[in-house]
Amino acid sequence: MTGFAPASSIRNAVIAVIAGAATALVGNVLPAQADDFGPVKSIKVNPDLAALGKRLFYDNRLSGDTSLSCASCHQPDKAFTDGEALSTAYTGAEHFRNTPTLANVGHRKAWFHDGRLGTNLNDVTRESITETYMMNMDMRIMQERLKQDPVYVEMFKKAGKGEPSNGGARSAIQEFLKSITSSGAPFDTGDMSDSAKAGFELFKGKAGCAQCHSGPRFTDDTPHNIGVPENPAIWSDPERHVTFVTYAKFMGVENYMNIRRDLGAFIRDHKQSSAGKFMTPTLRELTYTAPYMHNGMLASLEDVVEFYNKGGGNSANKDKRLHPLNLTAEEKTSLVDFLKSLSGNSFDVPTYNAGEIDTDYPVISDWRNTPN
Fold first, then answer.
1. Could you report the per-residue pLDDT of 171-196, keeping only the tens digit for each?
2. Beta-carbon contacts of residue 258 (< 8 Å; ≥ 6 apart)
3. CA–CA distance, 337 with 331 (Å, rounded to integer)
4. For residue 45, what pLDDT is reported?
């Protein structure tokens, strides 16, 4: 038998719907509050393990031909980027993407511009070391190299990792990476200029930036398509193109020899709706990380603001929230001033006693015989 719901139930349901709609409306219209952002919390690390990771981070012996270290592309004075539009790759190739900052990387939810790794820093470290166009290191060889260095033998032991090993090395590097935390930015210290404060209001309101650049790191850790133009150097430079082809083939991209666009997050689910989407970058340390975007196509913060002011670029599945902002010259200046206020000193990581890297040492035939 079918009956009518009590009036009280209907009333409660209507109230719930209205409340839900109001909440959604507020979320889309009202600007985010300052409390939604705030300083980035530091991650507690094991200092001995982080010291080991720091030494490994700067050691060229972690690449196959000893030509590159992690720091070759992630330089501390540039907030752990390299200042290049497209980064360097392993000998015989060049990369097809911009080097992302490692500031606050321990808080990330997914890694690389396409977000293809969403597990943990251990996997990121492994891929960065072993991938042919990154450091091209056979970890079995790396382990033997580490065992021949008496400093590493001692440091692994002190960090509680026993003998030098691949797993221990990855664990140490990620411990060091977790220590790279932004601090001292005017936004966090309350030392913003009036122009920067006005820019923050624009950021949350009229400019709509906070829709994706949210939270303490100013990112939603989600890929979006904003229509960034392709970097033609990727396909005009044979050394960059061969890297793109290697990557695309491994990721299962069809017709990769004829593709002339970076598909981004498409490789995560192979859906056309994901093509051209890239992870929202953190806005921390922007002063040091130019040029911008996944392919370095925007040279300055002024260029970035103007790009968004025009409603982004051209793409078939560009995010529908992008539209011309009609910002005045003063508003654009204020927005840039705010973005600059997010830069602090992430490069000033704790001075772990990692020891100088000196390869002029006696070869250890058997690490077990090393004196305690």
1. 999 999 999 999 999 999 999 999 99
2. none
3. 10
4. 95
Is residue 153 a contact partner of residue 367, using CB atoms and an 8 Å limit?
yes
Would the CA dihedral through 98, 139, 104, 27 be positive or negative?
positive
SS3 352: coil
Distance in angstroms (rounded) separating the CA atoms of residues 245 and 231: 15
Distance of alpha carbon 159 from alpha carbon 70, whole angstroms: 20
Is 368's pLDDT higher than 80?
no
The per-residue pLDDT for 120 is: 87
Whole-angstrom distance, CA of residue 144 vs CA of residue 165: 8
Fold of 35-372: Cytochrome Bc1 Complex; Chain D, domain 2 (1.10.760)
**ω into residue 291 within 30 of 0, thus cis?**
yes
Write the DSSP assignment of 260-281 as a string of letters.
-S--BTHHHH--GGGTTBEEPP
How far is it, in rounded angstroms, from Cα 338 to Cα 301?
11
Q: Which of 303, 36, 39 is nearest to 184 (CA)?
A: 39
Residues 199 and 48: their CA atoms lie apart, in Å, by 42
Alpha carbon distance 361, 269 (integer Å): 48
